[in-house]
Amino acid sequence: MQTTIHPTALVSETAVLGQNVTIGAYCVIGDKVTLGDNVTLHSHVVIDGNTKLGEGCEVFSFAALGLAPQHTRYEGEDSELIIGRNNVIREYVTFHPGTAVGNMRTVIGDNNLFYVGSHIAHDCIVGNHVILANGVNVGGHVEIGDYAYFGGNSAIHPFVRIGSHSIIGGGTAVTADVIPFGLASGPRAALHGLNLVGLRRRGFTASQISAVRSAYSDLFVKDGLFAEKLDQLKTERGEDEMVSLLVSFIEDGQDKNLCQPLK
Q: Pick the catalytic residue: 56, 102, 127, 140?
């Protein structure tokens, strides 16, 4: 199929379009935009700035991608918004590019689903197979691991990290890092165990899940200093793939606060 552009769409002559691209009515595509093969834009989509949209993405009406970030120190620098393949971006979603204060780029991976009204702010890094339900607000400089799930109207504070395979409850405000495999809910996020349903759905074995449950118990349930418990876990079971992912996430955060269970 050939690329199809509705007569009412405004597409810059310098924008780069792949093969089999569909651009709906009243879309606006800026000068530095690149659209990959098989991209579909429904009506009234705005894409601007130095934005790359990967192949197979579908963007619904009134989404706005790549416009100037909401940052008081942004001075028009030529930062980037890089969006991977096969993402579904629903109505009123907003993604912002990076800033000179951060990495100069916002990067979004592949096969993600962004529900109505969700927002990814400047300088974020989003993995693959992530789901943001309606109204999720992700602040600047946030890092999100693969297969993370965010319930509707949750809000993620700037500079927070969300571990892979974790789940954030609807309406939860997250102000500290959430471990991989964790289940955090609010109103102010606290750990409520592990995302066991998600792990089973994704095909993790009983032994893998058991390793994570045991590590969680050692770190967050048993008494003792957290640093000492972490060192012991690393020494005794650090070679286990699941435990290693958990330990590495915590160590990479250095002195950053971790979301903890309610006491």
A: 140
